[in-house]
Amino acid sequence: MTNINNEHKQMISVLNQLIDEREILSRENEYLRSRETESLLIKTMNEMRKERNLLFKLLSNLITKHNYDEQEQHASIPIRFGSNSRIGWNWNWCMPSSLNRSVAKNSFV
Fold this sequence. Notes:
This protein is mostly helical. It has two domains: 2-62; 77-109, no CATH class. It is 77% helix and 7% strand. It has a two-stranded antiparallel ribbon. β1 (78-81) and β2 (86-89) form a beta hairpin. The model is unreliable at 99-109 (pLDDT under 50).
């Protein structure tokens, strides 16, 4: 009978060890899953940062091109300066406002 009790105690001890190991493995598995999720989130964030930077560059290029096209369009449209009705080119976009009037009076085609 003692032998059966000892075997029973050993089986219970082994069972408890297995339960403890299972719990430890479950925690490790949960930790690894969270690390994997964190890693995926970090990768996604880095990719989004790269895409954002690319979009900023594209937007900057579009704005620069739009401003250049707009300046080019204004520069090539003849306009009248003052009452003397001479036709000149609109160079106002590239000069300080104090020079605009004096240069505009002397500009004609």
